[in-house]
Specification:
Layout lengths: L7 E2 L5 H10 L4 H14 L12 H9 L2 E2 L4 E7 L5 E6 L5 E9 L2 E5 L3 E3 L14 E4 L2 H18 L7 E4 L9 H11 L12 E5 L3 H8 L6 E5 L5 H7 L8 H9 L9 E7 L7 H11 L4 E7 L13 H13 L4 E3 L30
Parallel strand pairs: 1-2, 6-9, 9-10, 10-11, 11-12, 12-13, 13-14
Antiparallel strand pairs: 3-4, 4-5, 5-6, 7-8
Helix pairs in contact: 1-2, 4-5, 9-10
Length: 361
């Protein structure tokens, strides 16, 4: 069924909202939990698959315009390193990408939160698409259910262990739908993922970080720093002009962290731009005193950005200098870059589209 902005989407509803909907349509209370399991545990694609839900209740939903949003798998690409990239189509014909990354016993899924992105980071292919629209909570969680079905077919016994909101879009720019999706994915009646296994990545959208800190949900937080000073960050990440490094770091100091939790700072290394040893010293100084780790990410080239990946020697020297100055530092090895599935490469390889005007709040 096609997406309608005013339609009630079962896949986007919380369990409590599902209970209210079922009651409104005359269903018995236990039907809500049955329905929830079909949608969020079994990952059904159509209500017709919910065999123990009365036809009368399903017919009532249909008459009222209640839908079950489902993503269509348009393409699956497989990397030589085992990474899989899924191109998924929404019911209104938009394309998004989601990536499965195997690593020993772990299987991490990188999911998208928007179709495109409004924040214009200069090294990111997604940014060149502009923002077309937010994904609904149902479309966000369905990426996980589609991936689960793919794994069951291709890698029986393998399960998704970790989720990272690091795909297309800025998660905190789609705050309501992202936080709803987090609550759905951590429900013990559905995917039953732990917040400790879920990471939300942001470019540093300060109001969104503050709002997240006020919620009763606690995913891991990753922040894209990518520069050691405002002069460079203003150029490669225009959001910095609104929320400069000092404001961002102060907001993160005030962010409520549970014991033994750390903030992850991400740093994309761009040759000749932000990869000097002086940059490394400044980064270490900025992060001193934070319960944190730094992920160093060598730039993953794509035709929509003019930057280059630094040499192995420069990458190693940068990482070692930051580490020597007391910051836990890790190198994120590119995964799936042969199929444009690595960090910063997700763009469906379509021509850039006209951005819609988006007012940041």
């Amino acid at each position: 069924m096609s997406r309608a902005d005013n339609a009630i989407d079962l896949r986007s509803l919380s369990l409590e909202e599902t209970k209210e909907l079922v009651a409104k349509h005359g269903g018995k209370p236990y039907r809500a939990q049955q329905l929830w399991r079909w949608v969020h545990d079994k990952g059904i694609r159509s209500l017709d698959e919910a065999s123990n839900i009365p036809k009368s209740l399903r017919a009532s939903f249909d008459e009222a315009g209640v839908i079950l949003s489902s993503l269509h798998v348009a393409e699956v690409q497989r990397s030589v390193d085992g990474t899989r990239k899924m191109r998924l189509e929404t019911s209104d014909g938009r394309s998004i990408e989601s990536v499965l990354i195997p690593d020993g016993d772990k299987m991490t899924q990188c999911i998208s939160s928007q179709v495109g992105c409004a924040l214009d980071c200069q090294f990111c292919a997604t940014a060149k698409l502009g923002l077309m629209r937010n994904l609904t909570a149902g479309e966000i969680v369905d990426q996980v259910y589609v991936a689960k079905a793919l794994l069951a077919e291709e890698m029986p016994g393998q399960r998704i262990t970790n989720i990272v909101y690091m795909g297309m879009g800025e998660p905190l720019h789609n705050f309501a739908h992202v936080t709803q999706s987090l609550r759905i994915l951590t429900s013990d009646l559905g995917a039953n993922l732990s917040y400790r296994r879920i990471t939300v990545s942001t470019v540093g959208l300060v109001p969104g970080i503050r709002k997240l800190g006020q919620e009763d949900i606690r995913p891991n937080l990753a922040v894209s720093l990518n520069a050691s000073n405002d002069e460079v960050r203003d150029v490669i990440m225009p959001i910095n002009k609104k929320y400069p490094i000092a404001v961002l770091l102060q907001t993160l100091r005030e962010f409520p962290l549970e014991k033994r939790r750390r903030i992850t700072f991400e740093y994309v290394l761009l040759a000749g731009v932000n990869d000097s040893l002086d940059d490394a010293v400044r980064v270490a100084k900025l992060l001193k005193g934070f319960p944190c780790k730094l992920n160093v990410i060598p730039f993953n080239p794509h035709p929509l950005a003019p930057y280059k990946r630094p040499s192995v020697e420069v990458i190693d020297a940068f990482q070692q200098r930051v580490r020597d100055l007391g910051i836990a530092t890790y190198l994120r090895t590119p995964r799936g870059d042969d199929i444009a599935a690595a960090c910063g490469q997700l763009a469906n390889r379509e021509e850039p589209k006209q951005s819609e005007l988006v007012q940041l709040r």
